[in-house]
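It is worth pausing here to work through a concrete case rather than discussing structure prediction in the abstract. The textbook approach is simple: state the sequence, then state the predicted structure, then interpret. We follow exactly that order.
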Amino acid sequence: MSKLTDGLGLIKKQTVLRLWNAARIYSSFKISKIRREAIHTGMPISISIEPTTSCNLRCPECPSGLRSFTRPTGMMKPELLESILHQLSPTLAYLIFYFQGEPFLHPNLLEMVKAASKKKIYTATSTNAHFLTDEAARKTVESGLDRLIISIDGTTQETYQAYRIGGKLDKVIEGTKNIVRWKNELKSRTPHIIFQFLVVKPNEHQIEEVKKMTKELGVDELRLKTAQIYDYKKGSELIPSIEKYARYKKEKDGSYSIKNKWADECWKMWHSCVITWDGKVVPCCFDKDARYVLGDLNEMDFNEIWQGEKYSQFRQSLFNARASIDMCRNCTEGSAVFA
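Step two, the predicted structure:
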């Protein structure tokens, strides 16, 4: 029932203009696939914005955790979000307040969510839940946030910290309880709470336990997600032994390769994009270090970037030689398992 409520919440926020825009985007993508030519009409259906690159944890496969960015660390200014909403809100259906970093480290995150909610945009964010104090939880529910993804990658501290280095499982559980309690007290249908369990070898034996924990805590949904490994070809201690939850398979020579096949095309390049904390527009969430900057919102309007020559050339390159794009070679789009 909670999934249905969440789905209906998304549908209710759609307008005729947003639906028309989605139809234009979808049809232009289909035509492009047939002609193998990047034809594009419409504005993005969804975007991810990055409140901050800062993070309190040191997860081993995350640039924020590794402190390995070549780009600067910082926090999005409220006026930048205001500009983004002014330009995109009429056609934008879905806004994710997350790219890299821990969103709740941004002091104005929930004010940003409120601003988007007032525009009737479906909003979501992803958190490690260490900052969901009683007050923060209440404000989160009151902000109008539609979806809250909480990373919980273990049911014991030992297992949890194997990936979430520096994290405390009891803080995650406490934060989750705070959110659930305030949803109930305020009689709010939102946010839809998702436990995201990144399945890696150290925690794969706890899948049934996390399913039980999800129900006991009153969380709406559990999502079992496969892990992206950067240097996967030589294998990794994080790659699960349960094949169902691994993005990679072992070859006869002992090396590893990506299991799923992908064609020379990408739907994401037509319907969505990512905006970094400092206003850079990048193609998707796989470009974590913002190597493929397609425009800067401090210098250009969004539509100039979205329909510009640089973006058009990038979309076309996906038809011509997607394998030549670094971030695409480790792309496992769609490699998620829902419990």
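Step three, interpretation. The two ends are 15 Å apart (CA to CA). The first strand starts at residue 46 and ends at 49.
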